[in-house]
């Protein structure tokens, strides 16, 4: 039987898997619901010639395989860009990562002293049973800095108290960073810092970026897949995935915007679709009631971005700024011109991406585009980052299920689902952010796809994709502490249950 792989989703994970399989002359069919764009959350939307990145994607990885693949797919259009992010707190900018002397000066002697004392207290008597995001950050930065620089922004992003967010979120997203490491990084000259392979991702100084946004790379990837004989079908939503165990084949149905159904047969199914949707809506035969109930408990945070086009007054040059101001709803503001000048087609103009995190039943999600543009305009003016008369246009992009939620019980639910899927569907492979319900970066999504392709080619699950974290590394503790640092080149031991 000839191998044929069906792939749900044309994001970084789905397209990486399709490209690597097509290079091995394996027939692939990729179904993507979006009728226009590939790239998933890493797509680049074009509005009147203005290009914008949905979530902000820095092309930086500790995995040489990922870096090499980016260069292979887009060899001539990657820029080297300076990393620049700041926190906006009480109408003042604070560098991120922290610059010790700037923070001391801007917070003032009294506040800085209290932050330092709070940090020393956390180091002397840390929280022993670390369960939540607030526990983890308090241990690494102290309670006072947690309140100033983490709490407001994080609760905007997730829509829940920091005490209800799993510590896994902090451990993955700011792994390796503490007050001490941030100060050390700020004080040491570059030549004394650790090399690229060892650097903390939060502290990198530069990154690569496609001239016209990340979608440029994924559009090139999709074209290369087609040239190698693979299919990337846009505007088709997968609605049914039936596994025929006796034939060891999948029957996959996808529906286009006119209601037409396309059916294909495949030997393997790779899914980057949200786990909850896959389990509850697509898979047949159904899995157990306990696993389905676990899937219903998985939560997602939705996201929308309001892009404002305005006259460039050089208000800020950062890639983005984090807004730690409870008086506005915007959580982060991108400056697309700082990602790449070619994202903005007109001289003297710029474009800001006002990012709002929400749930689909929130009033902000259901607001009209014109209402959201007015709201974003009001807030950027209130923050002192633009004058109202300089704003000339705007548009809105909504992204459902942008972020899998790390509540205190998500790991238990995910493990229940994962165990049963692997037992019941031996040729089903979950990849990527939503496919694995892991808040990860683009390079991690790609690495999960790379290892999945290795497993498909090998005919067995030699590589444990679940051991890849957001930095595209393997866990180096417990049973996995066997020097499997060169990701994808060596087998990994089976994870502990």
Explain what this protein looks like in three dimensions.
With 497 residues, this protein is α/β, with parallel strands linked by helices. The chain has three domains: 5-43 and 214-297 and 408-480, FAD/NAD(P)-binding domain (3-Layer(bba) Sandwich), CATH 3.50.50; 92-201; 300-403, Alpha-Beta Complex (Polyamine Oxidase, Chain A, domain 2), CATH 3.90.660. It is 36% helix and 23% strand. The chain has 17 helices and 20 strands. The strands form five sheets. A seven-stranded mixed β-sheet has the order 7-6-16-17-18-15-19, sandwiched between helices. Strands 9-2-1-13-20 form a five-stranded parallel β-sheet. Strands 12-11-10-14 form a four-stranded mixed β-sheet. A hairpin with a 2-residue loop joins β3 and β4 (50-53). The two termini are 34 Å apart. Mean pLDDT is 87; it is low at 191-202 and 470-497.
């Amino acid at each position: 039987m000839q191998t044929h792989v069906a792939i749900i989703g044309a994001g970084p994970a789905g397209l990486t898997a399709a490209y690597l399989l097509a290079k091995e002359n394996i027939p692939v069919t990729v179904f993507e619901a979006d009728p226009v764009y590939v790239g998933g959350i890493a797509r680049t939307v074009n509005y009147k010639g203005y290009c914008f990145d949905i979530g902000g994607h820095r092309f930086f990885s500790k995995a040489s395989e990922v870096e090499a693949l980016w260069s292979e797919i887009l060899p001539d259009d990657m820029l080297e860009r300076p990393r620049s992010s700041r926190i906006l707190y009480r109408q003042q900018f604070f560098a991120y990562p922290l610059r010790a002397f700037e923070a001391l000066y801007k917070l003032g002697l009294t506040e800085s002293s209290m932050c330092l004392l709070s940090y020393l207290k956390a180091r002397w008597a840390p929280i022993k049973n670390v369960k939540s995001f607030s526990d983890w950050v308090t241990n690494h930065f102290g309670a006072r800095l947690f309140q100033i620089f983490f709490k407001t922004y994080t609760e905007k992003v997730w829509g829940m108290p920091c005490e209800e967010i799993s510590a896994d979120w902090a451990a993955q997203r700011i792994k390796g960073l503490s007050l001490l490491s941030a100060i050390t990084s700020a004080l040491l000259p570059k030549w004394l810092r650790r090399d690229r392979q060892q650097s903390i991702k939060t502290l990198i100084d530069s990154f690569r970026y496609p001239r016209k946004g990340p979608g440029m790379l994924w559009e090139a990837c999709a074209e290369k897949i087609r040239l190698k004989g693979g299919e990337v079908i846009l505007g088709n939503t997968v609605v049914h995935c039936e596994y025929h165990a006796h034939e060891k084949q999948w029957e996959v149905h996808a529906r286009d915007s006119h209601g037409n159904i396309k059916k294909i047969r495949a030997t393997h199914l790779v899914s980057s679709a949200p786990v909850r949707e896959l389990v509850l809506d697509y898979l047949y035969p159904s899995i157990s009631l306990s696993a389905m109930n676990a899937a219903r408990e998985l939560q997602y945070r939705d996201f929308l971005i309001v892009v404002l086009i305005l006259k460039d007054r050089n208000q800020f040059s950062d890639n983005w700024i984090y807004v730690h101001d409870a008086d506005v709803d915007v959580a982060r503001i991108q400056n697309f011109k700082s990602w790449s000048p070619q994202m903005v087609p007109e001289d003297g103009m710029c474009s800001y991406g006002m990012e709002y995190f929400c749930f689909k039943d929130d009033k902000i999600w259901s607001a009209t585009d014109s209402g959201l543009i007015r709201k974003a305009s009001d807030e950027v003016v209130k923050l002192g980052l633009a004058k109202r008369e300089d704003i000339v246009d705007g548009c809105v992009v909504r992204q459902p299920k942008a972020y899998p939620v790390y509540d205190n019980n998500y790991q238990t639910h995910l493990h229940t689902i994962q165990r049963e899927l692997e037992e019941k569907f031996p040729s089903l492979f979950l990849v990527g952010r939503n496919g694995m319900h892991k808040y990860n970066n683009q390079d991690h999504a790609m690495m999960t796809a790379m290892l999945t392709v290795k497993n498909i080619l090998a005919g067995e699950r030699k590589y444990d994709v679940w051991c890849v974290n957001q930095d595209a590394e393997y866990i180096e503790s417990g049973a996995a502490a066997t020097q499997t640092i060169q990701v994808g080149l060596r087998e990994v031991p089976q994870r502990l249950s």
